[in-house]
Amino acid sequence: MPRDTSPRRREPSQAAQAALDRYLDHLRDVRRRSPHTLRNYRSDIQAFLAFANALDVPFDEAGRRLGRAHLAELRAADVADSSVKRRATTIGAFYRWLDRDGFELKPEPGDSLLRLRYPKATSRLPHFLSEEEAGQLVSAPADDTPAGIRDRAMLELLYGAGIRVSELTNLNLRDVDLVNRQLHVTGKGDRSRVALFGDPARQALRTYLDEARPHFVQDVQPALFVNRSGGRLTARSIQRIARRHGLQAGITQPVHPHLLRHTFATHMLEGEADLRVVQHLLGHSSADTTQIYTAVAHRRRDELISSALQRARRVEGTSE
Question: Which domain holds residue 96?
Answer without folding.
Answer: 14-115
